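[User] At your convenience, examine this fold.
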Amino acid sequence: MFLRDILITNIKSLCKVSCVAAALVLTSSSVLAEEIQSYGYDENTEIRMKGRVISFFTDEETGLKCIFVKSGARDYKVITAPEWYVNKKRLWPKQSSFVDVIGSKSYRKDGSLCIVARQIFLEHAGRIEVLRDEQLRPVWRRPEAKEFSCIATSYSRIK
């Protein structure tokens, strides 16, 4: 009986520790995701850049979709938005299509220059896509941006 009580007490303690550890992991991962998607926007470094799309990819560090744009003799990494938002808005530019980007210069942890896009003109689509609102906050964080889930979007395509 004594051994059984000790065993039950140890199992309860282990469960408590596991729950606390799980809560910490979940909290820190959501904070990290928020941090990843919160590239700051500095109006003081805002530039306009025109060029041709070299490639379109997901940044491993941030999880955000990016475009490599050739403008003049230089290639620029342009940070756009999370994949779900890019898919929803159909922001996939075609290879070597023309883009006109207004964005803020930013430096990554490794010291490389990137452009945080505020708006992008997509020539192939013939439209301007705004990625930051009047207060320079990401538009994908607005409640109305999230109201159409992937299920709703898929469902609307089926109709």
Notes: The chain is about 35% helix and 35% strand. The beta strands are 46-58, 64-71, 74-82, 98-107, 113-122, 127-130. Confidence is low (pLDDT under 50) at residues 19-38, 149-159.
